[in-house]
Each structure stands twice: as structure tokens, then as C-alpha cells.
Design brief:
The protein is α/β, with parallel strands linked by helices. It has 19 helices and 15 strands. Helices cover about 50% and strands about 15% of the residues.
């Protein structure tokens, strides 16, 4: 089957494969503020390029935002790679490391700007950037446009620009999607999934395998001590009717914390007592114990002991009791097991899977996702010790983590085959152009449709892929897996509802360019 190429006078010849779903989405987005929902690896940046060159061809300016410097650099390099050489100088890169005088020039002259959102917002507030100078604003990882995130503020500053957002999936909650659409002034949501008819031709089958591991007696003993401490705190909260049962989620506990002043006033009035400190201590301790349990269930001993040691260095309500009493015995058991070389059963299962799939396969590319840096280091060190060619990818936070150039170097080494295994936190989920993988392993599970789809989308694009999900039986880990699967199924229902709501809005609020004529260059 011969390849059909995108043909545009501003795009290098035979530079980009023409995919109908990308062209069709671009047609819609040229004429209406659009939220594009397209799984990882299916070319959201290509759609952004199609839109930007159409604006450039008409003498209009565009800006694309991404939440991290690494992603902004990636968009910049992609645009430079595919736009004709005569127009390469029209593309500019802006991040927090760009000097002020350079930014001032870019804001006033560049035709296509790739920028982090906060630096643009800061310069808009300084008065050196006018958002209305740009006819097209594009927001990558658009699901972040909630609350007071910079995306929301930038969209509000725009009066006339076409706005296009890109994300791998959406929240499964209708109200959250409506908030997101409202913040970005969205008029239409264009959704494609791996099952969409116009997408199926461009992806390969991905097999998802569910692999259960069972905690050892030692782990169950450690877990029991944490669970008993947690239940004692929850019992106290229930005695004051703050919660209805001991089956309460971390999210619910955090929500209660946000409303604690009101709750405490009501408790003191109802029970004619001053139990504020006791209740607050029980609540904050329950939140920390819930987290400790999740870390042990999903990550293992190293992550749990590291959490305890960090906690022991902090001050706060209830911390001293947790460290010296509630968690102390569990920590001592875990630390002793760690010193003895005992590991979470997931780690041995992971090694077993890699032995079977990597050592005899020179073409293997494996991406392992885990939520915590402690686990990244533990997995990386174990695999390196066993002779695997492994790298790791984590974000930067303060003095800890990988700098932008180090992240790009790690991804490049993985793409070039220097490493054939990459262990990553969530920084590997969002947008990064990581090499095609034939095996993706979820070391842990997260109750998020967005993150599930982002992780899964790292395989099955150019070659058939596998996803192996490691799940610790009868723990929070297992619950998170089923929650994420359920949320993925709910997303399409939510999108249909929200699109109906958007369609019923005043059509007169829609705006088009060129005196109302449709911009259908790609028809």
C-alpha cells in the first residue's frame, strides 16, 4: 500500500503521511473552537501543524502551549522539521529560560510561537505580550485547563482567536468536561479512539493482560498494622458522624479536610464539646495512613520506608504519634525485610516477564510505568544489577530529578537502542515523543481514565503491542485498576452529552475567519 502525503505549500514535500482523521479534525478546528481528543501516539501535533500553516499561509499568527519545557521543545522541533526552510525562521521557542529582551521580540514578530503557558501569562500581565495579536491559540494536554491553571487565564485574555485544545482523553465527569470546555471557550469536541473507523487503519492490535500477584505473609503483616491504625482513626471520625463507614476514599478524606472548619463548628455545637484537635489529628493521620497503605500495596517496601523516613522529618498535627506509634512497628518490619533483600512480589514478577520478553529479543522496547520516584529507582537499580539495558525518566522538582536536557537525552538513548527498557513516572505519559514500544508494563495502577489511556497509547501504533498490568490482589491496587477501566468506558458517554449541550448554545457566538468563509484548505 503506497503512502499518501500531506500536500501544502508550506510543508516539506513527502514530509508527513496524510491521515484522513487528522485532516478531518483539522477542517473542524479551523472553523470552530475545538477540543481534540485523540489517544497518545496518533498525531495530535500533526493536526496542530496543519492548523498553524493554514494560519501562516494567510498571514495570521499562531501560538501553541505545552505544560513543560520538554514538550514545548518537542513541538518546536517538530514544526521546524516539517515546515519549508523559507519559513523556519518564523517559528520561535519561548520558555522561562528565555531572556526578557528575546521574548519581547518573539511576542511582536514570530508567526508561530511554541511556549510554556506560565511565561506567556506573566508577560501578558507585564504588558509585553498581547494575546489578541495571535489568531490561533493551541493548548496541548488541554485537560489541565481547570481552576486557575495558566491555560484558563490565557484563554480568557483572548477575544477573537480560534482556540484548539488537545488531549489524549477526558475526565469521566460531565461537570468537569463542561468546566474544561467553558474555560477554553470550546464549541465542539472531536473525539477519536482506537476503535474509530477512520483510525483503525493506522494502529495495530494491542493486547492487554492482567497479571495478579499476591502479597506474602510478611507484607500482609505489615499491611495489617497500617490498616489497624487507619481504622482506629476512621472509627473516631465515624463516632462524630463525619463519615458514614470505614470504606472511605482518600479523595473523600481530602474533601473533608477542605471543609474542616465548617465541620468542626457543627460538631462542637452538636456534641457540646471541644473535640477540634482530636478530630483534625484523626483526619490528617487517616490521610497519611491511607497514603502509606497505597504505597505499600502498589510500590513495595522501599517506597513505604522512604515515605516513613520523610514523614519523620516533618512537623504537623499527628505526625509525632504516627511516627512513634501508629506506623513504627510496620516500618521496623519493612526496614528489616528491606535489609534482608526481601522485595514486593511485583518486582520478582516484573523480572520474570522481562526475562521472557527481552533477553531473547534484540528488538524489544519496554516502557515501565510507576507513580513514584522511589519505585523508579528501586526498579531501575534491580534491573541494572541483573544486567538489563535500562534507563529511567523522571521529572524535575527542586533539586531532585532530571533536568530538561537530561530527560531528552534519556528519551533519545531509549529511541536509539542504547537502552531497551525505560522506567518512567507520569512524565512519560504526557506527550513526550518516546520510541514505539512493543511492551508497556503498568507497575502500578491509577484511578484515572486520562492516565490509563496515555500509558496504553505508548504501544500498538506502528507494530502490534502488549500491555501488561501488574495488580496486587485484594488491595487498593486492584481497586484502582477497575476504577480506571470503568472511567475509560464512561468518557464517550460524557462527550456525547457535552457535545449536545454545546450544540444547543447560541450559534451566533461562533466566529469564523475571512468574513465568515470556511477555511477548508485541506478539502
Amino acid at each position: 500500500m503506497s503512502i499518501e502525503w500531506i500536500e501544502h505549500r508550506l510543508i516539506k514535500s513527502k514530509s508527513l503521511e496524510k491521515r484522513e482523521y487528522q485532516v478531518n479534525i483539522a477542517k473542524v478546528a479551523l472553523n470552530r473552537n475545538t477540543l481534540v481528543v485523540l489517544p497518545t501516539g496518533l498525531g495530535k501535533t500533526t493536526i496542530a501543524l496543519l492548523l498553524a500553516v493554514e494560519m501562516l499561509d494567510k498571514g495570521k499568527r499562531s501560538m501553541i502551549f505545552a505544560p513543560t519545557r520538554v514538550l514545548v521543545n518537542q513541538h518546536y522541533n517538530f514544526f521546524k522539521e516539517h515546515i519549508i526552510e523559507d519559513k523556519e525562521d518564523d517559528i520561535a521557542l519561548v520558555t522561562g529560560s528565555s531572556p526578557l529582551h528575546e521574548r519581547e521580540e518573539v511576542w511582536s514578530t514570530a508567526s508561530i510561537v511554541c511556549s510554556t503557558p506560565q511565561v506567556a501569562l506573566n508577560d501578558a500581565n507585564r504588558g509585553i505580550l498581547s494575546i489578541d495579536d495571535f489568531s490561533l491559540l493551541m493548548f496541548d494536554e488541554a485537560h489541565r485547563a481547570v481552576g486557575d491553571y495558566a491555560y484558563t487565564m490565557l484563554a480568557r485574555l483572548s477575544n477573537n482567536a480560534r482556540i484548539v485544545g488537545f488531549t489524549a482523553t477526558l475526565p469521566d465527569n460531565k461537570d468537569k468536561v463542561i468546566e474544561l470546555a467553558g474555560n477554553l471557550k470550546i464549541e465542539r469536541i472531536e473525539v477519536r479512539s482506537e476503535d474509530s473507523l477512520d483510525v483503525r487503519a493506522y494502529i495495530k492490535d494491542t493486547k492487554v493482560e492482567f497479571v495478579e500477584v499476591e502479597l506474602t505473609t510478611l507484607f500482609k503483616d505489615i499491611r495489617g498494622h497500617i490498616l489497624n491504625a487507619l481504622n482506629s482513626k476512621l472509627e473516631l471520625l465515624r463516632s462524630y458522624n463525619i463519615i458514614d463507614s470505614l470504606r472511605v476514599s482518600a479523595r473523600d478524606l481530602i474533601r473533608i479536610g477542605d471543609e474542616l472548619d465548617v465541620i468542626l463548628a457543627k460538631v462542637n455545637e452538636t456534641y457540646n464539646t471541644n473535640a477540634s484537635k482530636e478530630i483534625a489529628e484523626a483526619l490528617y493521620s487517616a490521610i497519611r495512613l491511607n497514603h502509606a497503605l497505597k504505597v505499600l500495596d502498589t510500590q513495595g517496601l522501599v517506597a513505604f520506608t522512604s515515605f516513613y523516613e520523610r514523614l519523620s522529618e516533618r512537623r504537623g498535627l499527628g505526625v509525632k504519634t504516627l511516627v512513634n506509634h501508629d506506623l513504627k512497628y510496620a516500618y521496623e518490619l519493612a526496614r528489616g525485610a528491606e535489609i534482608s533483600g526481601i522485595e514486593h512480589p511485583k518486582l520478582s514478577k516484573l523480572v520474570e516477564i522481562l526475562d521472557a520478553n527481552v533477553k531473547s529479543n534484540n528488538n524489544a522496547r519496554v516502557l515501565i510505568f510507576t507513580s513514584y520516584r522511589d519505585s523508579v529507582y528501586a526498579i531501575y537499580n534491580k534491573l541494572k544489577e541483573l544486567g538489563f539495558r535500562v534507563g529511567y525518566l523522571i521529572g524535575k522538582s527542586g533539586t531532585v530529578g532530571l533536568r530538561q536536557d537530561e530527560q531528552l537525552s534519556m528519551v533519545s538513548k531509549f529511541r536509539d537502542g542504547e537502552y531497551n527498557i525505560l522506567v518512567a513516572t507520569s512524565v512519560g505519559e504526557e506527550g513526550l515523543d518516546i520510541a514505539e514500544c512493543n511492551l508497556v508494563i503498568f507497575y502500578d495502577n491509577v484511578p484515572s481514565a486520562i492516565r490509563f489511556v496515555q500509558r496504553k497509547g505508548r504501544t500498538g501504533r506502528r507494530m502490534s503491542g502488549r500491555v501488561i498490568v501488574l495488580v496486587t490482589k485484594d488491595t487498593i491496587d486492584e481497586a484502582y485498576y477497575w476504577i480506571s477501566r470503568k472511567k475509560v468506558k464512561e468518557v464517550n458517554k460524557v462527550v456525547g452529552i457535552v457535545n449536545s449541550i454545546l450544540a444547543n448554545k447560541d450559534a451566533g457566538k461562533r466566529h469564523n475567519y475571512d468574513n465568515g468563509k470556511r477555511l477548508d484548505y485541506f478539502l
